[in-house]
């Protein structure tokens, strides 16, 4: 198993919908680029042509009904392609990859939300990614109901965002439980604060990480 890629730097953002992952991922991309690192910013589901097709299938409210096992397999198929075509090649070139969601989202949503077996989902993720794990994961945590209120009113809501509050609360709990089991990788950030404060917490951690890996100085 190839757990952590020794070349490059793989960073992920996780959390329930509306916590501000995309904004923080973009800030981090800009910050690392200014420090001279080559950065690839990407997301799941999506990030490859196959992934974008899978994303439409999974998330458009008009998509056909998808059972929870099929849903888990589709997220995994998307991820397998994403790792093989985008993430691993960039890491092997020594670049920095920032992904908006990765395997932990399957624990949050398919294990927490859909109540599938955590062992099954972890095995599926391990197989799909050939064991590739991030160097660091920023779990942006806040109450899902408060996060939901932040959605831009006009923004089209996708299928999982239409799931009721207990689903989102279970997802949040599953993310937090996972963080407790992976304290060395997952940093929990209180995302209910202002964007600048959240960013400052991430920047502090990433600076420490870069120093240990002697990158970006
Ligand atoms: P996301 O791209 O974060 O949504 P948006 O672009 O609308 O901010 O994620 C789409 C949805 O997919 C989100 O509700 C979480 C869900 N999801 C899973 O259920 N399992 C997974 O493994 C991943 C990656 C996402």
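Sequence proposed for the structure above (217 residues):
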């Amino acid at each position: 198993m190839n757990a952590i890629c020794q070349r490059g730097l793989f960073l992920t953002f996780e959390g329930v919908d509306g916590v501000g992952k995309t904004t923080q991922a973009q800030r981090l991309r800009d910050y690392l680029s200014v420090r001279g690192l080559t950065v690839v910013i990407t997301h799941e589901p999506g990030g490859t042509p196959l992934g974008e097709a899978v994303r439409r299938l999974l998330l458009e409210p008009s998509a056909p009904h998808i059972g929870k096992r099929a849903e888990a397999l589709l997220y995994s198929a998307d991820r397998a392609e994403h790792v093989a075509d985008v993430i691993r090649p960039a890491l092997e070139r020594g670049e920095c990859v920032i992904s908006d969601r990765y395997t932990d989202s399957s624990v949050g949503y398919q294990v927490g939300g859909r109540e599938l077996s955590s062992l099954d989902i972890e095995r599926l993720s391990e197989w799909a990614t050939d064991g590739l794990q991030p160097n660091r994961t920023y779990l942006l945590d806040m109450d899902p109901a408060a996060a939901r209120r932040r959605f831009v009113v006009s923004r089209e809501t996708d299928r999982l965002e239409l799931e009721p509050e207990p689903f989102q609360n279970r997802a949040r709990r599953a993310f937090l439980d996972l963080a407790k089991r992976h304290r060395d990788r997952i940093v929990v950030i209180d995302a209910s604060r202002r964007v600048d404060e959240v960013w400052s917490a991430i920047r502090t951690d990433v600076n420490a990480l870069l120093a240990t890996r002697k990158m970006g100085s």
